[in-house]
Amino acid sequence: MPTPIQMQAIPVMLHGRELLASAPTGSGKTLAFSIPILMQLKQPANKGFRALIISPTRELASQIHRELIKISEGTGFRIHMIHKAAVAAKKFGPKSSKKFDILVTTPNRLIYLLKQDPPGIDLASVEWLVVDESDKLFEDGKTGFRDQLASIFLACTSHKVRRAMFSATFAYDVEQWCKLNLDNVISVSIGARNSAVETVEQELLFVGSETGKLLAVRELVKKGFNPPVLVFVQSIERAKELFHELIYEGINVDVIHAERTQQQRDNTVHSFRAGKIWVLICTALLARGIDFKGVNLVINYDFPTSSVEYIHRIGRTGRAGNKGKAITFFTEDDKPLLRSVANVIQQAGCPVPEYIKGFQKLLSKQKKKMIKKPLERESISTTPKCFLEKAKDKQKKVTGQNSKKKVALEDKS
Length: 413
Known about the structure:
Keywords: ATP-binding, Helicase, Hydrolase, Nucleotide-binding, Nucleus, RNA-binding. Residues 199-360 form the Helicase C-terminal domain. This protein has 413 residues and is α/β, with parallel strands linked by helices. It has helices at 4-14, 29-41, 58-71, 85-92, 107-114, 134-137, 146-155, 172-181, 210-223, 236-246, 262-273, 307-314, 335-347, 354-357, 364-372, 385-412, and strands spanning 19-22, 51-54, 79-81, 102-105, 128-132, 162-167, 186-189, 200-208, 229-232, 253-256, 279-282, 297-300, 324-331. It has a 7-stranded parallel sheet. The chain has a 6-stranded parallel sheet with strand order 8-13-12-9-11-10, sandwiched between helices. Helix 5 packs across helix 7 (146-155). The chain is globular and about 65 Å long.
C-alpha cells in the first residue's frame, strides 16, 4: 500500500512536473522519487547518467543507493555511487563507455569531478535531478551547499531535465528558491508543515544540569531499556566524552562523528543495524535521513538548536508506522529554545508542561544566532569540575617545569 507522499509525488513526477515535496520522516520519500525515475527511464541505455540524486551525507547516499539496487533488481539498470573521486574520474570521465544510468552522490564529490579539466563526469544526459533533504543543502555557513547546487544545476544541460526537491521539513528559503528557479513547480506537503510523526511518544525531561544528564542516562540504563538506542549530542568533543563515560556501564556502546574514518563509520553503522551495538552516540551527521530499522528510543542528550533539527533527530524512530519514543533532556540554559520544540511535541498530541507554554518565542535573528553558535556546555564527566580544574593547573605547572629544565639543559650545552 503506497504512503501518502508516494500517492502524491509519484503521479506528479510521472507527468514530468517539477516538484517540492515535504513529508514526515519515515514516510517513504525514497520510494516516492525512486519509483517514477525507474519508470520514466524504462530501461538501461548507454547514454551516461540519466538520473542524478543528491544527498547531504554519504551515509544517506549509501542508503538511497541500496534501496535503488533493491527495487531495480532484474531490470538491468546500472546504479552507481561515488566512493573515491579520483577513481570516479577515470570511470565516468570523457573516455568512459557511458554504460551507466543512475548516480547517487553528495555535492562535494560531484563538484570535485565537475571542476576537473576536462570535467571528470558528464551530466548532459540527466533527465531527473532529485535533491534529498533539500533544506539541509540550503543551510547557511560552511555546511551550506547552495553554490555547489547551482553549479550542478548548470551542468545538467539537457532540455529534458526536471528537478524534484524532497525533505522532512519545509524551509522558507527552499520554497522561495524553488518558486524562482524551478519551472512551474508543484508543492506537496503531507501533514502539518515541520511536524513530528505521531508514532513517536515524545517527552521533555528537566535534568537541572550537565551532571543531571549523565545521571538521567544512567538511571535509564539501571531501569532497563529496549535497544537499539540513538543518543544525540551537539559536538564531536561531547560525543567522545559521553562515549568514554558510558563504555564503563557494561553496555554495547559506540560513537559516530565526522572525525572517524569512512571505514569506521561504515563499520559502526553496520554493527548498529546488526544489533551488535545497543547504544549509538552521534552528532547531527546522522540526524538526516538515515533509516535504522527498529530504533526504539532516541535520547536528545543535548537540546537541539531548532525545531527542524529536533524533527530530524526524533525521526530516526517511529518509522514506517512503527512505534518509538524520544526523550529530550533540558537544563536552565536551554530555556530560550524550549518553546519551539514544545510546540512540535504538542502538535503531535504529546503532553507539554504548562509553564513551558508560557515561554517567549525566539526572534528570527536569535534563532539563527543560536543555530550558528550553540550553547557552550560543561564537559561530560563524572569527575567534579573543581577536580578537573586542579588537574589542568597541575598539568600546566608540569609543562612549565619541563620547559624550564629543557632551556637550562640547552644553555649548559
